[in-house]
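seq as requested:
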Amino acid sequence: MPDRPVPLTVLAVCGLGMGTSLILRMTCETVLQRLGVEARVDNTDLSTAKSQSPDVLVGQGMHMDDLAGVATVNVVVDDFVDDQALEARLRPALEEAGWL
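struct tokens:
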């Protein structure tokens, strides 16, 4: 496991950082709880995300080029409420990074 403070820090990002990032945050929290991962999940807009340093960044693919290097792990989502799809992408990313 990487030498990281617990809990894992996760940032849910959308273009404007309003409703959709909050929805994505709640979906992330559901998935992380189901996976048994202790995490602090925050949500924000694209511009603010660039100044953050989370362990994991979750957002739409169209924003990931702008967010390159912000987090150790980037997870692309297509549907902000589909917890099964998020888990299918988040689980292997966390396993590969050694956090699961």
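The longest helix spans residues 19-35.
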